[in-house]
Amino acid sequence: AYLNGIEIARGNIGVPGIIPLFDTYADNNTHEAQMYQGGKPEGFLLYQDEIDTILVQGNNVLAIQVHNYGITSSDMSAIPWFFAATSSSINNTICLPVWFNTSIYSFSGYLPLFLINTKGQEIIDDPRITARLKVINNINDNPNYLIGNPNEYNGQISIEIRGKTSQSFPKKSYSFETQNSDSSNNNISLLGMPPENDWILYAPYSDKSLLRNFLTFTWMREMGNYASRTRFCELFIDEEYRGIYVLMEKIKRDKNRVDINKIEPDDNTGNALTGGYIVKIDRPDNGVSFDWVSPVHFLNGNHFDVNYQFNYPDREDISNQQGNYIQNYITDFDWILIGNNFSYPETGYRKYIDIHSFIDFFIIEELSRDVDAYRLSTFMTKVRNSKGGKYFAGPIWDFNLAYGNAHYGDGWKTDGWALYNPNFGPGIPFYWKRFEEDPVYVDLTLCRWNELKQNVLDTTKIVGQIDSLVLLLGDAVNRNFERWNILDHYVWPNYFVGENYQEEIEYLKSWIKERISWIDANISGNTSYCNSLYEDKIIVSEINYNSPNNFDAGDWFELKNIANIPIDLSGWLAKDNNNLNSFTLPSGTILDPGGFLVIVQDSIKFQLLHPNVSNFIGSFNWKLGSNDQVRLYDLYSWPVLSIKFSNSAPWPEDVDNTGPSLELLSDFGDQNDPYNWFAGCPGGSPGGPYEYPCPAIGISEKLAESNITVFPNPVKKTLFIRVPDGTVSVAKLFSAEGNMVFEKSISGWQSKIDVSELSAGCYYLKIHTAKSVVIRQVVKI
């Protein structure tokens, strides 16, 4: 179809944009007429933004080009229809045919709308087809209209059906890729998620609450782990309403998803070979056999089969060296676990894995009592050695058959451990049960469970979350179950079948409450202490992040021993806010009473800028952000400290990208209290105590610009600033604690600031010029 000579629709022939020759055959010979059979003709919805630039005032020409599938065809027919909707109250209309669906023009909802136009193609499970996606997502509580203009995305996608068992459901799930017109990747943000090109439209069907995956992923993120971000939406495919869907991030290596290093095909030696990897425990993809099987099949008289598959890099891209490396690493971990010394802190299984990720994974699997727990849809991640080298459980995936939504495998029960489910014993990896023979793991798990019950897994909070999500879905729930009439009907493998949506929600709430109560009463362990014995003995005394480029020593933080005995830090683990980043302190690291130790991101950068500091270790090779965290765990994985800091008030703001470090005011104060920190010396004071006044050497000299002069210094009453080029500048004066006490616009050759009312002490003058930001230490006497 062409409007004023420009193609606006096409089906069953050729490639959009390339005009078929007159003797070109149609692509498919089964394109039968529909109206004579009581059906409706194939339709193409044209949006205002698509035709506004084509229509002209006055006469417009719509041309329809029709092709047969071959010279032997016995018939060919085409009856074109063209309908236009208008907001005008004065219009001329003809009688609409009975098959015409006028509701499409009045449809509105408050969930984002995903509109897919396949151009007459069928979406199948491999290969993907090329289609067009429009996303309408109005804000400020404005409804989304089906005939509204797309404001989130309007472009090409490739799309296919996804899933295994779920493919048998009439409501299909899809994976799609946002593309440029040349089919290259188009990384975009959808519904506020970080930019990427691989996405999933998950179709909750047997889960009639519509919430199970959404809730589980939300809780895992609240626990501090990555899980796919999720947003509810409503889906139309070729004008046909498909119901409520969940837009999800596909599990993928990406800085905003599974944040591990990219592996190139030639990364076959050294540090590059060590990560990152994602492996999967699941049914074999497309019937293909597993990539390898664990050699450990028996433990404590029990039989196990642990089957692994490559996920990233996948089996088509992974090199022999890379495949051998990750297989050998996991196999070594397996063998260590069945040894007599498996629980030794430095040489046992904890040398290989991030124990806290496995504990969080265990808690989610047991809370949900997923019938697939541990044995299907299970992902594991291995990071590069330079980022800590650990093996992590997760990211989590697929909980639609959890929380009592399965009539087999004891899936409906709120009692009993999924780990010891007798229906699936051989398929559950042996190491989960082996962990429970380590008292430290058991105690850590109990402590973590009790911690999470105070916030993330508090039942009152969970019930409130569910109620809020039901309110968010609103009338879309009715539309979904009008389209899929399954309420009060059994859908495999439902255990509970509610008469209405509210009963499905109440069942989910009560099941979760009962499950949490059962775990409370049956989880084992000792809570005599849930933190390290070294808590309040080792502190973080200084943090340096985001230094200016002209004197960047890399990020670093400083530990201090405030106890009266030496403390062995060998094997301790440091982390930031990203669980996948870690650094293990080397063997032989001893910190004397009153001693300092600097943990550095880049030892070369640090030494260049601080040649006289020798009490440092590193490199930890990850970067501290402006809103980040420093965490420390002892040799047995017990938490020693956790500090969340920020570049926003009440935290000292004159630290981020300006030069000073964060200095702790009181060794015995709350390290998470922003008022217990102040902006220290430019460049910091690594390896030793903060000194007042700051030394006028080293890094502070690097900040100097010869064309800016500040005098006298020390100053008693009036401070003069000379900016010889005469540009307009802004001067800000900060106290040693990082609080701004003065701000003034300055211009011309010389300006002055009255400091007579200020208390004596050390201050920092920050001068913003057109060319740079200059910092001067000022001493007020």
Largest sheet: 7 strands, mixed, barrel
Mean pLDDT: 90
The count of strands amounts to 38
In terms of DSSP E residues, the strand content is 15-25%
Q: Distance N terminus to C terminus? A: 83 Å
Coarse morphology: globular
Rg (CA only): 32 Å
Strand order of the largest sheet: 5-6-8-9-10-12-11
Please count the helical segments. Answer: 12
Outline the low-pLDDT stretches.
696-706
Structural class: alpha+beta
Helix content: 10-25%
Précis, in short:
With 781 residues, this protein is an alpha+beta fold. The radius of gyration is 32 Å and the shape is globular.
Question: Could you characterize the architecture of this molecule?
Answer:
It is a single chain. With 781 residues, the chain is of the alpha+beta class. It has 12 helices and 38 strands. The strands form 10 sheets. The protein has a 7-stranded mixed barrel with strand order 5-6-8-9-10-12-11. It has a 6-stranded mixed β-sheet with strand order 27-26-21-20-30-31, with no helix packed on it. A hairpin with a 4-residue loop joins strand 37 (761-768) and strand 38 (773-780). Helix 5 (355-368) packs across helix 7. It is globular and about 100 Å long.
Keywords:
single chain, alpha+beta, 6-stranded mixed beta sheet, 12 helices, globular
